[in-house]
Amino acid sequence: MPDGRQQVIAGVVPPELYEARIREAWPSVARSPGMASLGRVLTRTIVLAPLAWLVMSLGYFGKLAPFLARRYTLTNRRLMIRHGLKGKPGQEVPLGAIDEVRVKTDANSDFFRAADLEIVSNGQVVLTLRGVPEPEGFRHAILNACNAWVPGRKRGPFVPASATK
If we measure between CA atoms, which residue out of 56, 161, 53, 36 comes closest to residue 107? Predict the structure, then answer.
């Protein structure tokens, strides 16, 4: 008898058995718009670039500090913001409640290749993930998880990959 950890297809676990992590992202420096803007501006100068690296390193390595650590975790049951080194769940949204995921860009988005993701449920933003690296990929992972694991979810028409070119 399987114990719930054995899977027919490697990595595919139904939510009824246990919660499995699909994807995790640590926020980039763009999570702090003031620090990111200052770093972006200073980086454009040759003389002040080392100062920019120092300023941005506080944000970059600060995310690993025991009380400041934060990461965004997508599982087969929910999307959550986890805090601390142990990853204690903070804010969360069940996959069944997610209607839409919006990418919100700003002046720093192109430089840091990061943006904010707004999670919409019942027409309102219920969760904002700030400074998500590669936001479009994470957005698609969320939508794909919703389509795969939420029973009875209405799926749109199939669009082949060749049609998007």
Answer: 36
Query: If phi over 0 gives left and psi between -120 and 50 gives alpha, with beta otherwise, what is residue 11?
Result: left
Closest CA to 84 of 75, 73, 96, 95: 73
> Helix 33-43 vs helix 49-62: angle between axes, to the nearest 10 degrees?
150
The SS3 of residue 132 is: strand
Write a three-state SS string for 24-79: EECCCHHHCHHHHHHHHHHHCCCCCHHHHHHHHHHHHHHCCCCCCCEEEEEECCEE
Please state whether 160 falls in left (phi above 0), alpha (psi between -120 and 50) or beta. Answer: beta
Question: pLDDT digit string (tens) for 116-144?
Answer: 999 999 999 999 999 999 999 999 999 99
Residue partners of 47: CB distance under 8 A and separation at least 6: none
The answer to whether residues 43 and 106 touch, using CB atoms and an 8 Å cutoff, is no
State residue 57 phi and psi, 5-degree precision: -65, -30
Residue 124's beta-bridge partner residues?
121
Q: What is the pTM of this model?
A: 0.78
